[in-house]
Amino acid sequence: MIRTFITAPHRAHTRSFSTTISRRQQILPKSNSPIVSKLEFFNSVTGSSSLIPTYRVLDGVGNLIHGAELPQIDKAFAHRLYENMQLLPTLDTVLYNVQRQGKISFYMTAYGEEATIIGSAAALEMDDEVLGQYREMGVLLWRGFTIDDVMAQCFGNEEDGSGKGRQMPVHFGSPKHHFHTISSPLATQIPQAAGVGYALKRTPDRRSRSIAACFFGEGAASEGDFHAGLMLASTIPSPTLYIARNNGFAISTPSTEQYNGDGIASRGPGYGIDTVRVDGNDVLAVLSAIREARRRCLEQGRAVLVEAMSYRVSHHSTSDDSFAYRPRTEVEDHKKVDNPITRFRLFMESQGWWNADAEIELKARLKEDVMKAFKRAETLKRAELSELFTDVYGGEQPWHLKEQRAELARLLRKYGSDYEPWRKELAKFKNNGRDLLD
Ligand SMILES: Cc1ncc(C[n+]2csc(CCOP(=O)(O)OP(=O)(O)O)c2C)c(N)n1
Ligand SMILES: [Mg+2]
Question: Which intervals hold domain Dehydrogenase E1 component (predicted)?
Answer without folding.
Answer: 84-383
